[in-house]
């Protein structure tokens, strides 16, 4: 009987201990969450404060949360400028999950700079370097990036706005400049550029469920580098089917395409219809292009696009690479109209498609700047033919023709 009592006593003690630990943990969680809960509640009800001095031409706006840690950080920053002249400061507050982000735009007698303050509510600490960025140092470079990445319309709107409707998000390896949607009509994607402190760093926020390949024929040309820049800045890739006779005299462009992470394929040496050539002529058109590319880059060509998409059985038997044609033809060579090219792609493209364009027309360059952000917003990844095949789990076979890859 005493054994049963001892067992019951032991059981009660263990239960009491677990109950004590459980209540202690809950109490600790409640205490530690009080600041977080308080900030969450207050951040939505912050008050706008203003420091204004007409004689000194000062007009400073800043948020006040009623939370000492945040308010001290903001006030320390603001009060430094309140001693100056010809200063205006405006701000925007964003809350993303547990992060409060404050973007301050500082106009010092026409010179624009930015302050970015990020605070983690759950960690109760400031994050990122919160550096002051003098936009005037980077302005011309940012403008050139916008010009390379986006359509002429977006570029002109930002140029005319002179960065009044923009804000900066600071990251460890650089910063992003975002442009307010109110600047643009009928644009339903974020317009921004990323300025990397390390040029080797690339940033991609692409989420996709569809993959297509962009391809460009007949280059390299004076527009090829611009096409590459637009692709890179939009976190996209493409395959360039180049002509040997143009590679030979545009070697810098060939290297630029190759070293930018694009794929280079052969479009033969002189754009002849391979179906009408003899065996030796076919070999010469293909092999001479491969030799030129190897001399320039040290690498070998792995894909062929025959001119006009023509490849009879004789041609297929003599080709030692996969043969890539297309199933979406933009007819950019015919229309020479960026709007028509843009609309044709959006109206006809679907998962697994190979899109035909030419990097020898300025209208095509303008079209891809317009269409890539829209396709990305629709969940498309734009990449090379070989990466499309990899995404789809397809092994490309030599001598076989591929119009698309599913």
Tell me briefly what this model is.
42% of the residues lie in helices and 24% in strands. The chain is an alpha/beta fold and 406 residues long.
CATH class of the largest domain: Alpha Beta
Major sheet description: 7 strands, mixed
Kindly report the CATH topology of the largest domain. TIM Barrel
* Fraction of helical residues: 40-55%
Given helix and strand content, the structural type is alpha/beta
Distance between the termini: 76 Å
* CATH superfamily descriptor of the largest domain: Glycoside hydrolase/deacetylase
Q: Uncertain spans, ≥5 residues at pLDDT below 50?
A: 25-34
* Overall spatial form: elongated
Mean pLDDT: 87
Radius of gyration (Å): 30 Å
Q: How many domains make up the 3D coordinates?
A: 3
- Total E-strand runs: 18
User: So, CATH architecture of the largest domain?
Assistant: Alpha-Beta Barrel
Strand content: 15-25%
Number of helices: 13
Notes on the structure:
It is a single chain. This protein is an alpha/beta fold. The chain folds into three domains: 47-130, no CATH class; 135-196, no CATH class; 210-402, TIM Barrel, CATH 3.20.20.370. It contains 13 helices and 18 strands. It has helices spanning 2-43, 68-82, 135-149, 152-161, 224-233, 244-247, 251-259, 279-297, 313-318, 332-335, 338-348, 362-377, 385-392, and strands at residues 47-53, 58-64, 87-96, 99-108, 111-120, 125-127, 132-134, 166-171, 174-179, 191-196, 210-217, 239-242, 263-266, 323-324, 328-329, 354-358, 380-383, 401-402. The strands form four sheets. Strands 1, 2, 3, 4, 5, 6 and 7 form a seven-stranded mixed β-sheet that branches. A hairpin with a 2-residue loop joins β8 and β9. α5 (224-233) packs parallel to α12. It starts with a helix and ends with a strand.
